[in-house]
């Protein structure tokens, strides 16, 4: 069974979803990867309350690392890429090639890009920290303007 809640952030409305194992998704209102069925609304679900609190702290520049149980569903390869995303330090960016190298599969750059784009737990699993090899900001399911804002927020905090 899935549960969800919604709350506002400086970048718009966020929907968070969890099951009994942990957080299964975090999406901005315009995200292209939201599921059709979010489950049952539960604003008192412990994991969802912790998610809202930690994301609020992140936007207030009081948190640089999330401490939440994660339970996203994906293929073994997607899980491997999403785990690698958690290795990108706050305030830094990696290229798709760096992610491919990190998982020991340097020729899988396109597959890494596809897995990155399917990450259901935005912000917390920091797919926004992945950029093109040229340093150019590439697509973000929540919108490129949100990716820019998230990176700017992290840069301003990490430079303090």
Topology, element by element:
Elements lengths: L2 E7 L2 E7 L4 E6 L11 E2 L4 H14 L16 H10 L8 E2 H7 L6 H9 L12 E2 L12 H15 L2
Parallel strand pairs: 1-4, 5-6
Antiparallel strand pairs: 1-2, 2-3
Helix pairs in contact: 3-4
Short characterization:
The chain is α/β, with parallel strands linked by helices. Helices cover 34% and strands 16% of the residues. It has helices at residues 46-59, 76-85, 96-102, 109-117, 144-158; strands at 3-9, 12-18, 23-28, 40-41, 94-95, 130-131.
Describe the structure in your own words.
It contains five helices and six strands; from the N terminus they run E-E-E-E-H-H-E-H-H-E-H. The strands form two sheets. Strands 3-2-1-4 form a four-stranded mixed beta sheet, with helices on one face. A two-stranded parallel sheet has the order 5-6. The longest helix has 15 residues, at about 145-160. The protein has helices at about 45-60, 75-85, 95-100, 110-115, 145-160, and strands at about 5-10, 10-20, 25-30, 40, 95, 130. The chain is α/β, with parallel strands linked by helices and about 160 residues long. Helix 3 packs across helix 4. Belongs to the MGMT family. InterPro entries: MethylDNA_cys_MeTrfase_AS, MethylDNA_cys_MeTrfase_DNA-bd, MethylDNA_cys_MeTrfase_DNAb, MethylG_MeTrfase_N, MGMT, MGMT_N_sf, WH-like_DNA-bd_sf. It is found in: Cytoplasm. It is an enzyme of class 2 (transferase).
């Amino acid at each position: 069974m899935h549960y969800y809640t919604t709350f506002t952030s400086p970048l718009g409305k966020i929907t968070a979803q969890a099951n009994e194992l942990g957080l299964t998704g975090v999406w901005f209102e315009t995200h292209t990867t939201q599921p059709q069925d979010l489950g049952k609304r539960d604003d008192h679900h412990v994991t969802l309350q912790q998610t809202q609190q930690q994301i609020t702290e992140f936007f207030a520049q009081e948190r640089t690392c999330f401490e939440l149980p994660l339970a996203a569903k994906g293929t073994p390869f997607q899980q491997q890429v999403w785990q690698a995303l958690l290795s990108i330090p706050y305030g830094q960016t990696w290229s798709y090639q760096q992610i491919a190298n990190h998982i020991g599969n340097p020729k899988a750059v396109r597959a890494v890009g596809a897995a990155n784009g399917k990450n259901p737990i935005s912000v917390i699993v920091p797919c926004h920290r992945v950029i093109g090899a040229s340093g150019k900001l590439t697509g973000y399911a929540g919108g490129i303007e949100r990716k820019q804002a998230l990176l700017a927020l992290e840069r301003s905090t990490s430079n303090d």
